[in-house]
Design brief:
The chain is mostly beta strands. Helices cover about 10% and strands about 30% of the residues.
Length: about 325
């Protein structure tokens, strides 16, 4: 047997947009947006239907769904090429319920091998001249519902080596409170206390922000269109938009859907088909719906996946980036 390649030095990448990419910080973006809106006003266009609203945004990453031993060449948005191979997945399960607690994903990127820790508060790492993460693996998908729309062994996301993880000026932290001010629950963590038949556990998707019941306002993370609110939905949305009285779904110009759940109250300005602006108040955090009695915001990204179906995707790297942009102090955890 050949000796395995030495483990390269891979490290999480902390991204701060406004300082590290001149011309793309919040101050300049706001000036630019003001000029665009001013021009639209001169042309007699309403703020609810400006040309900027219809301009599609493209993600700054590419994702691939691979089985073990599959290999794929990926072209990134900046033209960078990356040869990605999924080598193996090592699962660590607890001895009592056999629940998956940690998944180590061995990959080769442009000839360089490294190990990614799937989900569970892990940021993209530098490897083989790009940045890469693994938001989920098949072992985290139970039999009753495939919320990730993943049919292969693992999903990988790849960004260029430098630059932001999400386009600056298009995404905000949705709550006016400190990082993890209260309890949190993240992708692929086990939601203990919830029972689904014989499996007796479930793996969470999305990001849960604990907060003070009926006190914390919830803001739109993006410019977007309201596609579902108060138990009603517009026509033509995918079936992953699951309408409920305490839930709001927004769709941005990337074609991404965002689920905001457990509102105590939803503001009257949030109406089907209406545009909302990034930072606009949507309502107040609560513990309505299937909250388990815990006051929190369930915030989830749903987008079209390589399988051809809409499924969840991880928000952690994007939240981490924009929080650091707004709060330059070090994040401890």
């Amino acid at each position: 047997m050949h000796a395995e390649a030495a483990e390269p030095s891979i490290r999480p990448v902390a991204v701060r947009t406004s300082k590290h990419w001149p011309g793309k910080g919040r101050r300049k973006m706001r000036v630019g947006c003001g000029l665009v809106l001013g021009c639209c006003w001169v042309l007699g266009m309403s703020s609810a239907g400006t040309a900027a609203d219809s301009l599609p945004l493209t993600p700054l990453f590419r994702s691939v769904d691979l089985n073990v031993r599959d290999e794929r060449r990926v072209t990134l948005p900046d033209g960078t090429k990356a040869d990605i191979k999924l080598l193996r997945i090592t699962e660590h399960r607890d001895p009592v319920r056999k629940a998956l607690r940690r998944a180590e994903v061995r990959v080769r990127v442009n000839g360089v091998e490294g190990t990614l820790i799937c989900a569970t508060y892990n940021l993209p790492v530098e490897l083989g001249g790009v940045r890469i993460d693994c938001p989920t693996v098949k072992g985290y998908i139970p039999g009753y519902r495939n919320v990730w729309a993943l049919d292969c062994d693992a999903r990988l996301r790849i960004w260029p080596k430098a630059g932001p993880l999400i386009r600056p000026g298009t995404f905000l932290y949705p709550l006016p409170q400190r990082w993890a001010a209260c309890g949190t629950q993240f992708d692929c963590e086990i939601g203990d206390g919830e029972i689904y038949g014989s499996e007796r556990y479930y793996y969470h998707q999305g990001f849960d922000f604990g907060g003070a019941d009926r006190l914390v306002p919830v803001h739109a993370a993006t410019d977007a269109t309201v596609v579902s609110a108060r138990g009603e939905s517009i026509e033509g949305v995918p079936d992953v938009v699951r309408k409920r009285y305490d839930v709001v779904y927004l769709r941005d110009t990337r074609g991404w859907y965002y689920r905001y759940s457990h509102f105590d109250s939803i503001d009257g300005s949030v109406r089907l088909g209406r545009r909302v602006r990034m930072g606009q108040r949507l309502g107040v955090l609560g513990k309505e719906g299937a909250s388990g009695g815990w006051a929190h915001l369930h915030f989830e990204l749903i987008r079209l996946q390589e399988s051809g179906r809409y499924g969840s995707d991880s928000l952690y790297a994007f939240l981490h980036q924009v929080y650091l942009d707004e709060h330059p102090e070090p994040v401890i955890a």
